[in-house]
Amino acid sequence: MTAAAEKSSGHRLLVIDDEAAIRRFLHSALSSEEFSLHEAATGHAGLSAAAAFRPDVILLDLGLPDLDGIDVIRRIREWSQVPIIILSVRERESDKVAALDAGADDYLSKPFGVGELLARIRASLRRAATSESEPVFASGDLLVDLNLRRVILDGTEIQLTPTEYDLLRLLISHAGKVLTHSQILRQIWGIAHHEQPHVLRVTISNLRKKIERDPSRPKFIITEPGVGYRLKTAE
């Protein structure tokens, strides 16, 4: 992940397309204060970028040189519910049905207009936002606005990296319940990191330093020894 991506406050878009001309067109049309773009030219590169870049929306071509786009959708859906919009020259109904059945959220045939693409991206972002069970999580002096991606501790906004925020959001979505190390690793980093618990320990440590008054005696993120972590809710 680039430093620019970590610092960006806009929605993150991942473009997976082997056509350089299409990537240049999308970069020119969508790069703005509202969006930050990351590009991948192959299916495998796209899967790695999806785990590292943590996009809010993925724009995916089906005709990739190394993996079919349908396989890319299935691989991502093993660990993420990020909105996926298909951009493809395949116009047959069977192709659209296969992509949507595999887990894609929308389908736009090439060539397409920028206005329609932007409308579909905004619609995907709205659906993702409203799918949260609660828009605001509050426990003690910690407040997290899930719609605005804001984390506030005792009235002061806290800056988290995308991965730290995604981890906190996952814990909030299961607040009060124990999440195992494996469940968290699959959801946040993907199956490639399933056996790398040190990655989780480091990120939990960094997150605690930002939201806990005393990270050595956490009151929000509770360790369940040998099992995982639990976000403690207000009594």
UniProtKB/TrEMBL annotation:
Residues modified to 4-aspartylphosphate: D61
Keyword DNA-binding carried by entry: yes
Keywords of the record: DNA-binding, Phosphoprotein
InterPro entries xrefs: CheY-like_superfamily (IPR011006), OmpR/PhoB-type_DNA-bd (IPR001867), Sig_transdc_resp-reg_receiver (IPR001789), WalR-like (IPR039420), WH-like_DNA-bd_sf (IPR036388)
SUPFAM superfamilies associated with the record: CheY-like
Pfam families associated with the record: Response_reg (PF00072), Trans_reg_C (PF00486)
Ranges for domain Response regulatory: 12-125
DNA-binding region(s), residue ranges: 134-233
Residue ranges annotated for the OmpR/PhoB-type domain, each copy included: 134-233
Protein name as catalogued: Response regulator
